[in-house]
Structures are given as C-alpha cells and as structure tokens.
Amino acid sequence: MEPTVLITGSAGLVGSALTTTLRAHGHRVLSLDLRDPDPHSRVDVRDAQAVHAAVLACTGIVHLAAVSRVIWGERDPGACRATNIDGTRNLLDAALAAPHRPWLIFASSREVYGQPRQLPATEDTPLDPINVYGHTKVAGERMLLAARDQGLRGAIVRLSNVYGSRADHHDRVVPAFVRAAVSGQPLRVDGADHTFDFTHVDDTARGIAMLANHLENGQPPPPPIQFLTGTPTTLGQLAALTVELAGTQAPITHAPPRSYDVAQFHGSPERARQFLDWSPRISLRDGLTRFIAAVRTEIGGAT
C-alpha cells in the first residue's frame, strides 16, 4: 500500500497545518473531520463503522479529532467524553483490526499534568488533570498504551497552547487578544499572573510530521513527547506584548481566573530534541507578529 496518512480532525487548527506540512513533503494525506467540505471525508469519530472503513485506506493515523477546549468539556462533559474517549477507542479498535495495522499518533495535551508541582514539566511529570478535558486525554493515553500491548505501533504527543492561525477559534486567548488589539478593543485577561507555554502551530505541525516520518520508516515508537518552547509567559505579558506589536492603544482589563484552568505551566522540550532532533523555531514575538499581520489582512479584505 502507498504510504498514506489519515488525519482525524484535519480541518482544525493543528490538522490544517499538518495537512499542508505533510503534503509539502510528498505525503498522501486523507482527511477525516466533521467540518470537512468534502462529504466523503465528513466523518464523526464516534461512528465506529465509518471509522473502520476510513482506516482501511491508510498506513498511518494522526488522531487530532476531539472536543478540544477545556471550557467545552466543562459545559458538556458527556459530549467531551463521547468524542475524546469513545471516538479514540473506535479509532484504536479499527487500527488493531486492520489487516495492515497502521501506526497511530495520539494528540494529547499538557492538561494531563494538571498543576505540576515542579516546573518545567517533563513527560515524566505525574498525570493529575483538574478538568474534564484533561481527564479524557489521560484516558486516551491509557487506551493507546493498552493498544501498544496488543501490537499497535502507537505514539503520544502532548501539545501546549498552540496558536498562530486565523482558522483558530476566535475566543481562544491568543486569537481573542490579537483581534481585540488590532481593532483597538479591550483585551480581557482572566488571571493576569497565570503562566503558559505558547507554541506556534507551524512548530507543532513540524514536530508531528517528524514523528510520522519516524514511524513510517519503521522506527520503534518513542515514549510520550511534548512539543513546546520551554518559555513561560503570563497572560498579562501576552496581552501587553500583543498590544505593543499591534501598535494600538487597546486597553487591557482584568478579571479573576477560571476555576478549572491550570495556573502555571511550562515544560521542557528536551525529549523532542533527543528523539526527533526537534526544537521550536518561532518565538512568541515572531509568531504574534505573523498572526497580527494575517488578521489585519483578513479585516482589511472584509471591509
């Protein structure tokens, strides 16, 4: 079979960038997403029969499809569990049942750590999630490890505050800050001293593509790998930098943090460097500058 990568969640923030990255390097890519414009690719991962059919056409899978927002998981825990746990189980079952048994990369999250006691977090930091979304990602990781015991060549990646595309949800923190700053509107900061590790989507896609090549070439799956910068940034710093780079006088307002958010996080990218020779290339300043320019172009084209 021709090497072919199936990307679930292909229309999302990371999926869109990964599709572009893999195709640019000559990979054949199949899409699977509820929002895909092609009806043949518009598949719900909760539909076991459709998932089994899709897996028959690929040699590898990158599983990104999920209820991917912490706030969505808090608002509708049932839907979050059905997609993130049952959908992942469908995909793993399909991969194990397929005659050619494709490799699989499962996209997890830094939310699996909850609030780490020591920073920077490593992949060996204990898993202790504090919200519904984080719990579903821990469940997904455990299911993948169980599938590995049954012979699946599976790998786990943990993503951290990915940003950098206009296709992102407008109410996520970086897009919300950028759009407000460009428009001169207030930037609302929920917990100014909360600290995160913001990673550009192009760096994230490049890391996943490198891991896909590793598995496609027959290499053994590595232990879980997190793709992040290792640089902590508070939400207050993020807001101020966004306004500075936008060159506007947009005001910054402050509100209490949300009860289900991790307060402090940044992690070490050392394992990604060790196993894949990956390191982040795009600084937060450069990534925000690109994002601001793209949003300005979008707004200008819409007026």
Write the layout of secondary structure elements.
Layout: E1 4-8, H1 13-24, E2 28-32, H2 48-55, E3 60-63, H3 70-75, H4 77-97, E4 103-109, H5 132-149, E5 154-159, E6 162-163, H6 173-183, E7 187-190, E8 195-196, E9 199-200, H7 201-216, E10 225-227, E11 233-234, H8 235-246, E12 252-255, H9 270-276, H10 284-302
Parallel strand pairs: 1-2, 1-3, 3-4, 4-5, 5-10, 6-9, 7-12
Antiparallel strand pairs: 8-11
What does this protein look like?
The structure is a single chain. The chain has helices at 13-24, 48-55, 70-75, 77-97, 132-149, 173-183, 201-216, 235-246, 270-276, 284-302, and strands at residues 4-8, 28-32, 60-63, 103-109, 154-159, 162-163, 187-190, 195-196, 199-200, 225-227, 233-234, 252-255. With 303 residues, it is α/β, with parallel strands linked by helices. It has a domain at 4-162 and 198-230 and 267-280: Rossmann fold (3-Layer(aba) Sandwich). Strand 4, helix 5 and strand 5 form a beta-alpha-beta unit. Helix 2 runs parallel beside helix 4.
Number of helices: 10
Tell me the number of strands. 12
Q: What proportion of the residues is helical, as a percent range?
A: 40-55%
Biggest sheet, strands in spatial order?
A: 2-1-3-4-5-10
Mean pLDDT, nearest integer?
95
C-alpha geometry: globular
Quaternary structure type: single chain
From the alpha-carbon coordinates, what is the Rg to the nearest angstrom? Answer: 19 Å
Content of β-strand: 15-25%
The level-1 CATH class of the domain at 4-162 and 198-230 and 267-280 = Alpha Beta
Q: What is the distance, rounded to the nearest whole angstrom, between the alpha carbons of the first and last residues?
A: 48 Å
CATH structural architecture of the domain at 4-162 and 198-230 and 267-280: 3-Layer(aba) Sandwich
